[in-house]
Amino acid sequence: MMLFLPFFLYATKMFMYFSQYSQIMKQIDIVFPHERLSVVNEILYKHKVGGLLFHDIKGRGRAKREAISEVVQGYATGKAYVPEFGTRTKLEALVSDSLAKQIIDDILGSLSTGSASDRKIFVKDVAEAYDIGTKHSGDVAL
Q1: How far apart are CA 78 and CA 80, in angstroms?
Q2: Burial 88-124 (b: 16+ CB within 10 A, else e)
Q3: In what order do the strands lie in the sheet with 25-32?
Q4: Residue 51 carries which DSSP code?
Q5: How far apart are CA 50 and CA 60, in angstroms?
Q6: Model confidence pLDDT, tens digit, residues 12-31
Q7: How far apart are CA 9 and CA 49, in angstroms?
Q8: What does the alpha-carbon distance between residue 142 and residue 138 come to, in Å, rounded to a whole number?
Q9: Can you tell me the distance from the alpha carbon of 14 to that of 16, in angstroms, rounded to the nearest whole number?
Q10: How many CB atoms are located within 10 Å of the residue 80 CB?
Q11: Pairing relation of β-strands 86-96 and 25-32?
């Protein structure tokens, strides 16, 4: 019991220090069909998110893959195949902690069709962010 008390006091002191001086931000990673990019972009504009990154990615998940027709040099061959990997878009945005839940709720409401192929949203804590040009940090850097 005596060994636990100093550790508990130290952990409590560190928690109070970080909660007082640091601003927690969230990184939202959204994987979705490329056709829905304009919808997600409108939602982020609505919440005044300053910037974002998006990438065209390939991968596979649990969703059933559909056969597509084979095209060689612009001509359909009449054959169909099931691709191993599907193409999607991954969007990354840094937002303040207070906005994250509202943005996620709006995205879920707009993109969800109830299908497994709707893909995923991942949320990560970001301890610090810096704007190189202005040298600002925290929420101001976003």
Answers
A1: 7
A2: bbbbebbbbeebbeebbebbeeebeeeeeebbebeee
A3: 53-59, 86-96, 25-32, 120-126
A4: -
A5: 30
A6: 454 444 444 456 899 999 99
A7: 38
A8: 7
A9: 5
A10: 11
A11: antiparallel
